Amino acid sequence: MIAVDVGGTETKAALVAGTASDVRAVRQRRRATTRDADAVVDDVAALVDELRAGADDVEAVGLVVPGVVDEEDGVGVYSANLGWQDYPFVKQVEARTGLRTAFGHDVRAGGLAELRIGNAKGLRDAVIMPIGTGIAAALVLDGRVYRGDGSVGEIGHVDVGHGDPCGCGQTGCVEARASSAAIARRYTERSGNPVTGAADVARLVRAGENDAVVVWREAVDALARGILLVAALLGPEAVVLGGGLALAGPLLVDPLRDRLDGLITFQRRPELRLAALGDEAGCLGAALLAIDMLEER
Questions:
Q1: Is 108 left (phi over 0), alpha (psi -120 to 50) or beta?
Q2: Alpha-carbon distance 118 to 111, whole Å?
């Protein structure tokens, strides 16, 4: 399979081999994500051509994208960060590549990979939450990734009461304070010191820089309140944190655990885990979707 994970900032692609229970990337490519659905398809087609060169028996493409998706019809319904609406991704990619294409949501695909081969393996009820340019969650219910009508898991757009505007048009969203992009933006606005990403802010937090500490604390609070809502509604065994922000490790998990302990009263207290697959999760999940599609034919 050739797997493509279109992220809010970067598009990752890989030639992937394996089975429905064990996949591995053989070759990988990355490029910046373009802010237009037609241009995204151009990039996907170019990546497929590059990765299939010299490869034997490429059987399918697995493509995952952010936002609201219609997996059955292969349509990207809406993306707040990338700006498309009702775009027929599967039709366009199949026409360009000549390969059957499995289609899904980037976060749910990453959740599927964590469930089958990562740190959610063995869990029956869990929330897998990558934190990157945006925030969404894969919901594992009774051992399966729940996709509903394609619009579930948008925890990043839950109002947790802080009042800041979000790109989706609402205010108070978890994503507006706790996404990697928001942390970098808010630190730059507060301090006047431009940074390139949340990793820069994390380094400043470790050094005790005051503005960074405040921004980080507010991000942790927003994230904890979002997890509290999930705990109240779903009672998961664990919340598995992934994406770029999870690379901060204890700098994120320790204060998040403390804040969650301060908020929880009667709700089931979910274990906090770090994802195992890093930023490969979306690609590996896209490949698993392709394998599942082929096995169903």
A1: alpha
A2: 9
**How many Å apart are CA 127 and CA 120, to the nearest integer?**
9
Full-model pTM: 0.89
Cβ atoms of 244 and 135 within 8 Å: the answer is no
Angstrom CA distances, 66 to 132, 170, 223, 240, stand at 11, 18, 19, 19
CA pair distance 148, 281, nearest whole angstrom: 21
> First CA to last CA across the chain, in angstroms?
15
Neighbours of 53 (CB within 10 A): 10
pLDDT tens digits, one per residue of 72-111: 999 999 887 788 899 999 999 999 999 999 999 999 999 9
User: Which residues, in sequence order, are CB contacts of 57 under 8 Å at separation 6+?
Assistant: none
Give per-residue pLDDT as tens, 185-235.
Answer: 999 999 999 999 999 999 999 999 999 999 999 999 999 999 999 999 999
